[in-house]
Write a structure and sequence with these properties.
The protein has about 375 residues and is α+β, with helices and mostly antiparallel strands. It contains 8 helices and 19 strands. It folds into 2 domains: about 1-285, Gyrase A, domain 2 (2-Layer Sandwich), CATH 3.30.1360.120; about 290-369, Beta Barrel (Elongation Factor Tu (Ef-tu), domain 3), CATH 2.40.30. The longest helix has 11 residues, at about 115-125. The radius of gyration is 21 Å and the shape is globular.
Length: about 375
């Protein structure tokens, strides 16, 4: 099992550790998941997300290559902008969702999900010959060399400003800079958070990780900064309705079914890409199911895998993610629901053991600032 450069920090702080995507990761700290969740919503917390994958795509064919292997329109990116996208798998499903950072038209950084890093790398390499991309030169997997911290919450950028000469506290969402942070050179500082409460992520070489951790927690003391585990990361992202690969999207779900039509572009600048015709046909004929958010009206906890039904018990879908939302204080979930009941306002039922609990399909996000 792999360790991150912060593993000793987590263990010294009493974190509950568990295997996740092949890494020994902190799930929660002694204060518990709900406490950590509230800390991020109201203040500032730090996540170790060094298990995520990082892949460089460079060279004169970098832009057309990414236009082909991802669903979004890379041509709209300018240096310093990031983009959420996904990689279609050629069979109507999704290899992974990812973030693309544009340094210039010949240089991009892809940040991919930890559990999918090898699969994503293999997928990219399989398409490389079509574009004359040289593996190891134009495509470089640096996942084992890079650490990542996500500093999240409404006070996060105020904390980080103390460690940066550049103005970071007013950075726009989905932008980034490569700057010095706490004396560490060439840190990628981005605002692409996964919690819905603002903040940033920083990427640096592993050797600088402990120095960055110590500096962040030192300047964050007056703000009540705390380390946060992956348990609260999941509750925070679900309250925002953000997809989690392996739960809400996978190799069997199309971007359109997952409600990701907004990152699936068919314009002239986009051109051809993997599954373009399949997705055009699906868009034209109409999807028969869609990932939707729901709130329980009856008391209960929706869990992954539970059936979603009509009042008479007719099966119309399944829960992909569910829990009691610590901020919204009710049962919430995502699930694929058959047409037309995936529309907001529809009344559906979640089967919990032998009971059908009433729920309502709602517009995302669940949590609103």
């Amino acid at each position: 099992m792999k360790q991150t450069v912060f593993t000793e920090k987590h263990m010294a702080l009493g974190a509950k550790m568990a295997p996740f995507a092949g890494f020994n990761m902190p799930i929660q700290y002694p204060g518990g998941i709900t406490h950590e969740h509230v800390t991020v919503r109201n203040g500032v917390g730090v996540f170790d997300v060094s298990h995520m994958g990082e892949i460089w795509v460079t060279g004169k064919k970098a832009t057309p290559f990414l236009q082909y292997v991802t669903s979004n329109d890379v041509s709209v990116l300018v240096p310093g902008k990031a983009q959420y996208s996904c990689m279609p798998n050629g069979k109507g499903g999704i290899v992974d969702d990812l973030i693309i950072y544009c340094f210039d038209p010949d240089r991009y950084l892809l940040v991919v999900n930890a559990a999918n890093t090898e699969k994503d790398w293999n997928n990219l390499c399989s398409h490389a010959p079509k574009f004359g991309m040289v593996i190891g030169m134009d495509l470089v997997n640096v996942s084992d060399k890079v650490c990542q911290l996500a500093i999240q919450g409404p006070k996060a950028l105020e904390v980080m400003q103390k460690l940066c000469k550049e103005d970071v506290k007013d950075m726009e969402y989905y932008t980034f800079m490569q700057i010095e942070v706490a004396g560490v050179p060439d840190v990628i500082f981005s605002t692409t958070g996964y919690t819905g409460s603002g903040g940033c992520e920083i990427y640096a070489l592993n050797e600088y990780g402990p120095k960055l951790w110590d500096a962040i927690f030192e300047v964050g003391k007056e703000y009540g900064i705390e380390p946060i585990g992956l348990g609260a990361r999941d509750t925070l992202r679900l309250e925002m309705g953000f997809c989690l690969y392996g739960n809400d999207i996978d190799d069997t779900t199309s971007p359109l079914e997952a409600g990701l039509g907004w990152i699936t572009k068919f314009n002239d600048a986009k051109g051809d890409f993997v599954d373009r015709q399949f997705l055009l046909d699906q868009k034209s004929s109409g999807i028969t199911r869609r990932l939707a958010g729901f709130e329980l009206i009856d008391k209960g906890v929706p869990r992954e895998g539970y059936d979603i039904c009509m009042e008479d018990g007719t099966l119309i879908g399944h829960v992909t993610s569910g829990m009691i939302g610590p901020s919204v204080k009710c049962g919430i979930g995502l699930g694929y629901i058959d047409k037309p009941l995936y529309k907001a306002g529809s009344e559906v039922y979640v089967k919990v053991r032998d009971r059908l609990l009433k729920a309502q399909v709602v517009k995302l996000p669940f949590y609103k600032k």
